[in-house]
Amino acid sequence: MKKLLPCLLILAFTSITAVAKADVTKMGYVQIDKIMQSPISLEAGKKLQNEFSPRNADLDKLKKQIADKQASMDKDLATMSETDRRKRSQELSTMQIDFERKQRELSEDFNQRKNEEMSNLQDRVNKAVATVAANEGYDLIFYGSAAYVGKDADITDKIIKAINATNP
Known about the structure:
The structure is a single chain. Strands 1-2 form a two-stranded parallel ribbon. The chain is mostly helical. The chain starts with a helix and ends with a helix. The chain has helices at residues 4-21, 32-36, 39-76, 82-136, 156-165, and strands spanning 27-30, 140-143.
């Protein structure tokens, strides 16, 4: 028993030393929702709004023209000839089809540009995460949802600061 006790003490000391020397994994968490509400994301939204506002204005103008022509036709309907009524109805139908086509094209173009801007923002976030991780020794950084995130693990503000530092 006397020989076994020193062996157990040495084994216990070795285990404690190994645990004390073990590397601790440094983890962080990024709140994507907070980044999406940051000035960086809002700037992309304003950029898109400025880019598409002229086309929206043109669509609004065309919609008003259609409404005005429809109102005029409704007002004059009782006094119009059948030929004139068909002609004006055909014009309205053509205008409505043109309006719907332009509206669909605008929506498709907007969604494409929005996806491009979101992809660009995601690339910037990923680069900022990689930079912060490398500079501060993080082993693991999470995005998205988590059951609990302590305030020390939330590095969202650091990521936003890093994105701003590399603003193109």
